[in-house]
């Protein structure tokens, strides 16, 4: 049985001055922490969804993923800076400290914020929305645990963000 651990987020946000949308997860999974970057679980569909809706080649390396995001005006980060969690189980999250979004919002061109899954959305609404003032759009989780949503349905839902990143 997995134990609760107190853990700090170690990934920097990915964004630049041209970033138009920000996609927020909850907190990196065990597999993502082992991989060293966002959505590192091989079964997570995040990268396949984004490459699909942008008609782009699937980025493989961490550097390719960063370049892919920035070239499409997409930023990513997580709501949580630190928490107590069992493994990768979002439902076990407690003792939440949230990230400070001021830097990203002041140094980019954010037009919309999207939450990858219910938990990211709920945490954003509870801890961040009031200080940021930008309503998040809830999207279905790309996690392999969200088996109800196949790749095609995820791409349809995520394609909503395209109107914010178009030139």
Structural overview:
Pfam families: UDG. Keywords: Glycosidase, Hydrolase. GO terms for molecular function: DNA-deoxyinosine glycosylase activity. Its EC number is 3.2.2.15. This protein has 167 residues and is of the alpha/beta class. Helix content is 33%, strand content 22%. A hairpin with a 7-residue loop joins strand 4 and strand 5. Helix 2 crosses helix 7. The longest helix has 10 residues. The protein is globular.
**Major beta sheet, specifics?**
4 strands, parallel
SSE-based structural type: alpha/beta
What is the 3D shape?
Answer: globular
Average predicted confidence as pLDDT: 94
What is the count of DSSP helices, taking H or I runs of 4+ residues?
8
Please bin the fraction of helical residues: 25-40%
How far the N terminus sits from the C terminus, by CA atoms, comes to: 49 Å
- N-to-C order of helices and strands: EEHHHEEEHEHHEHH
What percentage of the residues does DSSP assign to strands (E)?
Answer: 15-25%
- Mind telling me the C-alpha Rg? 15 Å
Number of DSSP strand runs: 7
The residue ranges in which pLDDT falls below 50 over 5 or more consecutive positions are none
